[in-house]
Design brief:
Elements: H1 12-16, E1 54-58, E2 83-85, E3 91-96, E4 104-108, E5 110-111, E6 126-127, H2 130-144
Amino acid sequence: MGHSGYCEAHDREAVRRRPGLDKICLVWAAVINDFDTQSGTIFGQSNAVGAEAVRAAQYFNTPAFGVVPPILAPFSSTGATPVLFDSAGKRLATPDLRSHKPEIVAPDGIDTTFFGSDSDGNGFPNFFGTSAAAAACGRHSNLAFPGQAQAQPGQDLHETRK
């Protein structure tokens, strides 16, 4: 379970000052019958400033297969979780909506050689999910910037091209 506000309160007073907005994040499949807000599902590291959050689209629902724009996988995030408090637990005057997240879409359902089931019948098991899409992003960035310097934490990737 995660909260969109003060996630890890360490002092009791901060816990008593309830943020007024809670978010329950279910990691496994579930159906929400009441109060489904259709709100963003990004939380944790991928919601951080400087992180690239990834949406997934099954590879056959992407421009490479004639689908423009790509059709997002049903489990893919609809957006970020607003940040309501600073790192000291003080309410921000204006919530940081992180409305630009997720930043990119990448294919999932990619072929692997070691796990999954062969859903497309080509002899290789397929890997689905945003984890697969994130791995695809890493491969593509290496192809796009071969031999480039490694980016340092907090550094814009475009700076490594200089």
